[in-house]
Amino acid sequence: MADVLRRIGLSLGADLCWPTCYEEVLRRLDLAIDHGGDTIRFEVDRVTIEPFDLRQGSRYDVVVDRLTHWYTTSREWIKKAVLMDGLYVFNNPWAIQSMEKHTSYCAMMRLGMPIPDTWIVPPKAYEPKPDLEITLSRYARLFDLDEVGRSVGFPLFAKPYDGGGWAGVSRVDDEAALRRAYDDSGTYLLHLQRAVEPHDLFVRCIGFGPQTRLVRYDPSAPLHDRYTMDDGGVPEEQRQTIVDTTMTINSFFGWEFNSCEALRQDGTWRPIDFANACPDSQVTSLHYHFPWLVTANLRWSLFCAATKRTMRVNLDWQPYFDIADTDAPYADKLAGYAAIARERFQTDEFESFCATHLGHLDGEVWAFFDTPIAYDAVRQKVATLFPNHEVDLFTDLFWERIQRWRTDNPPADG
Ligand SMILES: Nc1ncnc2c1ncn2[C@@H]1O[C@H](COP(=O)(O)OP(=O)(O)O)[C@@H](O)[C@H]1O
Ligand SMILES: [Mg+2]
Q: Burial, 23: exposed, middle or buried (Cβ in 10 Å; 0-12, 13-18, 19+)?
């Protein structure tokens, strides 16, 4: 029986609130887990940015990465550490880099998901490139934008093929509005996607490893109210469809932390945006759901670190396509995809690990979110985003919602 230390690194950019909570709860847990004949302890610190020798080792077992979808130096350090030092990281940096929204639409259409009809149109403008002129003059066919719009059907959404954060997204009602949107779109490569309208419910389903949380989402509300505090009363069998959809997407693309947006129209859930592999984790957006996020993150990273889970570096899509290519009804196919996801996320092992070793986690999180450290973490995040005169107001608003979560979720033993 050896004493083993597992190091977890947090690779961070602007994140402020959840890392403080994560570190503090881990400290309070004071874990010494008996696993595989060893006693495992954990240490967490923050990954720094510096020059590195490609052959130098890494001190981390697991990195929770929130930075490398836009910050290249850290992404390339992570890739090196995965390839050369056996590092486990979520999310998989190669899967984030190469799988934009467009790939996710095509792949999930291939699996039979009810993605709204979507076209792509060549961009209005280009960055200059040596062969651009000759290529376009030879091969770019004039096209009738109105006709493409009518094929998709109005209203539609024009949005970048690799979009995020609502940049360049517009809702288009008719041909004239489409021409205006296209003229204003610059170098964006645009999808034109049929609007899921009318719809009677909009949800985001957050997936963290095998854990999910479904939240009704209100895109028309101000930022701090977009995540609502309820799940929209989704009936049980529909909930299962959304969870299975999210788990299918996440396991397919190797995203262990991702959120999936879906809209319900005539009883059918249509996923519209599910390539979000660095989902919002701030208390200022998640408020009521923030303690869940901190808990889910701790559970999954501790499981990966303690069990030395093997990182799936290459994505293997054929098993999904084998199911997709059968004649089974879509509901059966989805259940088949979800079964692959359960296995890839080691759902059974994860649940038994949590039951055996992390029984006190819920109680620690519940107690922690009543402390001045937790309050201060909320306040600090608010202070970076809100004007001075609103800091008290919004700190108290988010704090009150966290307290509501505590009231609704008392730990089983307390
Ligand atoms: N097909 C659609 N039907 C209805 N609403 C849509 C559709 N596509 C986008 N939207 C709306 O536009 C918002 C931004 O689009 P989205 O695809 O989520 O882009 P981003 O990746 O930038 O978040 C969505 O949250 C939703 O409110
Ligand atoms: Mg979105």
A: middle
Strand order of the β-sheet with 118-121 is 118-121, 190-194, 156-160, 170-172
User: Can you tell me whether residue 114 is helix, strand or coil?
Assistant: coil
Q: Can you give the pTM of this predicted structure?
A: 0.97
**Any domain includes 392:** yes
Asked if the structure places residue 311 within a domain, the reply is: yes
Mean pLDDT value across residues 346-368: 98
**What is the pLDDT at residue 413?**
64
pLDDT band of 277, cuts 50, 70, 90:
confident
pLDDT at 58 over 90: yes
pLDDT of residue 164: 87
Peptide bond preceding 388: is omega within 30 degrees of 0, i.e. cis? no
374 lines ligand 1 (CB under 6 A): no
193-205 residue pLDDT tens: 999 999 999 999 9
Distance 372 CA to ligand 2 centre (A): 34
Pocket lining: 192 vs ligand 1, CB cutoff 6 Å: no
98, 128, 148: which is the final residue of a domain?
98
Judge if 232 and 315 occupy the same domain.
yes
Question: Alpha helices, DSSP H only, in 128-235?
Answer: 132-139, 145-152, 175-183, 223-226
Residues 77 and 145 placed together within one structural domain of the fold: no
Looking at residue 357, its pLDDT comes to 98
Q: Does one domain contain both 181 and 244? A: no
Higher pLDDT, 277 or 44: 44
Cα torsion angle, 340, 345, 346, 349, sign = negative
Using CA positions, which residue lies closest to atom 17 of ligand 1?
273
What contacts 292, CB < 8 A, 6 or more positions away? 213, 405
Give yes or no: residues 263 and 147 share one domain.
Answer: no
In this prediction, residue 372 carries a pLDDT of: 98
pLDDT tens digit sequence for 202-248? 999 999 999 999 999 999 999 999 999 999 999 999 999 999 999 99
H/E segment holding residue 357:
helix 347-357
Three-state DSSP state, 279: coil
Distance from the CA of 283 to the center of ligand 1, in angstroms? 22
> Looking at the domain assignment, is residue 112 inside a domain?
no
Cα 187 to Cα 43, 136, 161, distances in angstroms: 45, 15, 11
The answer as to whether 105 is a domain residue is no
Domain that holds residue 21: 3-98
